[in-house]
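Risk register update: the risk of archive-format incompatibility is retired. Evidence:
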Amino acid sequence: MRTRLTPMQQAVVDAGRPLPQLTDPLEVELLVSAFAGPFAGDEELWEGVVAHLREVPSRRSAALLTALGHLLPGRPGRWAREAACLQGAPRWDLGALRFGECWIGDRSIDAGYLTLLCGYAYGDARHAMVFMVDEISGSLTRNAFLTRQVEGALGRLREQVRLEPITPEAAHWLLSRSYDRFERRPGLGVGADVHQTRLLARRRIALAVG
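Archived output:
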């Protein structure tokens, strides 16, 4: 008997419709993070979604399971990975993500925040995430945005703050503390971009620091 989906679960499944046509793994991450991020910790929701996708093999099911397996934390991510192994691989490879240079700029004395720019790449295609961490409010990430214009972002930041290199492990350890605080108190005021890119950031934190 096929798993009966709730309206919310059906909406999640429908949101994954474009995934098989995509070729850019970063676009996959952005799409899935935007629609799955608000419900990432809802195990009941993901249990039904994964069961349905397992029961209905298709290119969309395979793509959505693969993406969820990389991006969802905890047991839902494991369920998705296990189910994805039973279906075909999509055109993109989220496992090809690599870390690049990371930079930190501290303006906690005069402005109350520090800036982190963390570089990544899929093959030759570079991108970066820029995080604005509010030191006054206990190191809470207030803004987080993604850019493919890495050198341009570095240049603009250098006009505003003195940047110093930092290892990916150290940069993502700082982010881990910040995101832990955000997830314990999701009502804290942060930009919409933090919510939309939450799963991207969390995935990179996990890969860098475990």
